[in-house]
Amino acid sequence: MTPGNVVTATRADNMYVFTEYGIVNLKGKSVPERARAMISIAHPDFRDELDRQARGHGLIPKGFF
User: Fold this and answer.
1) pTM, rounded to two decimals
2) What are the distances in angstroms from CA 1 to CA 10, 58, 59?
3) Whole-angstrom Cα distance, residue 60 to residue 37?
C-alpha cells in the first residue's frame, strides 16, 4: 500500500467485533441490529449516549427494541 491510499471495509466484510466489553457477531444483522450490537459492547458509561445518537441519526428507528 502506498501512502495516501484509502482503505475501506464494507459492512459485509465485518463479521465479528471485539472490545474489552464483549464480542458481537454482525453477520446477517440489519442496520438497527448492528447498531444495537455495537452499542452493547461499548464502554458502559457511553451506551446511553450512543443509543440516543443512533436513534437521532435514524440508525435505530422508533419502536425498535
Assistant:
1) 0.78
2) 18, 35, 33
3) 11
Task: Please provide the DSSP assignment of 24-48 as one string.
Answer: EE-TT--HHHHHHHHHHTS-GGGHH
Whole-angstrom Cα distance, residue 44 to residue 25? 19
Give the Cα separation of 29 and 33 in Å (integer): 6
- Alpha-carbon gap, residue 36 to 61, rounded angstroms: 11
Angle at 52 between CA 48 and CA 58, to 5 degrees: 145
pLDDT band at 13 (very low <50, low <70, confident <90, very high): confident
